[in-house]
UniProtKB/TrEMBL annotation:
This is Derlin. Belongs to the derlin family. Functional component of endoplasmic reticulum-associated degradation (ERAD) for misfolded lumenal proteins. May act by forming a channel that allows the retrotranslocation of misfolded proteins into the cytosol where they are ubiquitinated and degraded by the proteasome. Residues 89-113 are annotated as: Disordered. GO terms for biological process: cellular response to stress; proteasomal protein catabolic process. SUPFAM superfamilies: Rhomboid-like. The chain crosses the membrane at residues 12-32, 38-59. InterPro entries: DER1 (IPR007599), Rhomboid-like_sf (IPR035952). Coiled coil: none annotated. GO terms for cellular component: endoplasmic reticulum membrane. It comes from Aotus nancymaae. It is found in: Endoplasmic reticulum membrane.
Length: 113
């Protein structure tokens, strides 16, 4: 899924697969699926990742930018409360021991005068 979303968000990036195959980034999930098939592995996981990545990319990047489109996927507010950085207080004045070096540079005294 992450490979699909990255490849769709970076369509002009040139890729090189083992020095043999040159292609644009949107083809990366398909190249990796072909390589899995070539190695004899099941491609079900690759197809599932492509499908889920396509749904996520469409709902997050394509549909909200369409006329009348809305953003369907929203981060729950509890996660925002836990992981977002708090807004900085513009009136915050750090204590002298929190300042780098601990010196009051440029505060009130002039040399030679």
């Amino acid at each position: 899924m992450l490979v699909y979303v990255w490849s769709q968000r970076n369509p002009y990036v040139r890729m090189n697969f083992f020095g043999l195959l040159n292609f644009q980034a949107p083809f990366l999930p398909w190249v990796l699926m072909g390589f899995s098939l070539l190695l004899g592995n099941s491609i079900i996981v690759d197809l599932l990742g492509i499908a889920v990545g396509h749904i996520y990319f469409f709902l997050e990047d394509v549909f909200p930018n369409q006329p009348g489109g809305i953003r369907i996927l929203k981060t729950p507010s509890i996660l925002k409360a836990i992981f977002d950085t708090p807004d900085e207080d513009p009136n915050y004045n750090p204590l002298p021991e929190e300042r780098p070096g601990g010196f009051a540079w440029g505060e009130g005294r002039r040399l030679g005068g």
